[in-house]
Design goal:
This protein is of the alpha/beta class and about 250 residues long. Helix content is about 35%, strand content about 30%. The strands form 4 sheets. It has a 5-stranded parallel beta sheet with strand order 2-1-3-4-5, with helices on both faces.
Length: about 250
């Protein structure tokens, strides 16, 4: 059994999540339900849960502030939120799970399944460190991307990604130093995550880091020369927007 605590200031959300877990997630035992961050901290320290369902936006202390206050901790977290888009983006960057209210049963079961695997492997500490660092500067680009692999989690500086290349349901990250990382996410996922970090999708197959563009060569759509000497086509429909961005860098 996965011993779990729910921390949420909204009564309906707490009760809805409790009922969903009890009905559809028999591997989870709810050992406490807390109505405030301070109560959550008290029961985490007292009961030492395996997993915490943590609301992000609560009065006086956010879910992220709660984790910072705890310092080192050895439980898994599934974040629960209604609408905080920046928080969701930071969580995605850190390869951690979140649930949108009202909670979808399939998403709940998937998140619990993945958290259960991390509990067995005990390999998520760096992910939370990355998340809290990303959350510390809400008006600045996020710095690191947490990439799930078969062996665990890679934490890669975003500025070392030269370009991302679509490969069906996977994405190849072409890094500085000639490294390539294959990730089981599609290119649209990376486009959404990296849009505010200096990346631009020049083609249906390529998302580039503008910091690594050496040259643009004119043509019907034209093409770019990157710092690793790769030439990538720019699609005709992306050309004007791309040139406008280049002129304003």
């Amino acid at each position: 059994m996965i011993r779990s605590i729910i921390i949420d200031d909204e009564a309906d959300a707490r009760e809805g999540l409790k009922m969903a877990i009890e009905r559809f997630c028999p591997e989870v035992e709810i050992i406490s339900i807390c109505t405030s961050p301070m109560e959550g901290i008290e029961y985490i320290q007292k009961l030492q849960p395996d997993m915490v369902f943590l609301d992000i936006q609560m009065p006086h202390m956010s879910g992220f502030n709660l984790l910072e206050k705890l310092g080192d901790f050895n439980f898994e977290v599934i974040f629960v939120t209604a609408h905080d888009q920046y928080a969701i983006k930071a969580i995605r960057f850190s390869a951690l799970d979140y649930l949108l209210k009202p909670v979808d049963i399939d998403e709940l079961q998937k998140a619990i399944g993945k958290a259960g695997e991390r509990i067995k492997q005990k390999d998520s500490k760096n992910q939370y460190a990355s998340l809290l660092k990303n959350m510390g500067s809400p008006h600045h680009p996020l710095e690191k991307l947490a990439i799930p692999t078969m062996e665990g989690i890679l934490l890669e500086p975003i500025n070392e990604i030269i370009y991302c290349e679509a490969d069906r349901n996977y994405t190849n990250l072409n890094m500085t130093g000639g490294r390539k990382i294959v990730v089981s996410k599609n290119l649209k996922d990376f486009e959404n995550m990296l849009a505010d970090s200096g990346f631009f999708r020049i083609h249906h197959a390529h998302l580039i880091n503008l910091k690594h563009v050496k040259k643009y060569i004119k043509g019907e759509g034209g093409y770019v020369l990157l710092e690793d000497n790769h030439h990538l086509d720019v699609s005709r429909r992306k050309k004007d927007a791309f040139l406008n961005i280049l002129q304003n860098i």
